[in-house]
Amino acid sequence: MSHVAPCNDAELALVLGIEGWLAREEIALLMACAARVPAAQAIVEVGNYRGRSTVALALGARRGQGARVYSIDPHAECVGPRGGRFGHEDQAHLYANLTRAGVGGGVNVVSLGSLAVAAGWAGPPVGLLFVDGDHRYAAVRADLEAWKGHLASGAAVLFDDCDFPDVARLVRERLTAGELDERGAAGKVRWFQAGDGASPPLPAPLATAPAAPAPPG
Ligand SMILES: C[S@@+](CC[C@H](N)C(=O)[O-])C[C@H]1O[C@@H](n2cnc3c(N)ncnc32)[C@H](O)[C@@H]1O
Q1: What is the value of pTM for the model shown?
Q2: Residue 108, φ and ψ in degrees, nearest 5
């Protein structure tokens, strides 16, 4: 998609100012993939925490073709498998960050678990699925299973924390099964294409930057 301009430093700085664990090059990859999604398709994010990835996706979509972001997180009190603590107060930070970034109008925040939202999904076909919720194997698998029936042909599927063994296992299995084609990676985020895999890969969105500290999610 040569018409997609790379993200600029101001946008990256804005996103990096939001609490979270995505590194610069990971943010750039999310933005570039979001920019490719047609306006008639949805960008679905599973797990938003305080909105670092949400703002990246929304800025990318706005720069690209204007797809709407559906950002899903129950914001229930929980401790992630890496020790990260999540809960109700994250939701207030999320809304504040979306507002500060000026992207609230492009994001539907859904405060429920991913599986419940997928079960009742009545939105557009999903052109980009970003999986960054519960990283335990059964949960990641359930997220992918729940959403795969809603994916548009050739949709992008991105997983964060591919360095975490449970996520790595799921990705490995689905690659072996031929369900996903790998298209690229940045840091711990890997980008796949579902279905026919016919779409060409994106150009490298940005030079690599130092990796972020290990995420607690
Ligand atoms: C690592 S954080 C997400 C970070 C965020 N994507 C970012 O890059 O800034 C993981 C989030 O997943 C959420 N989560 C846990 N279970 C979930 C589920 N079933 N559906 C959606 N989100 C879930 C947690 O509440 C937490 O906010």
Answers
A1: 0.92
A2: -95, 115
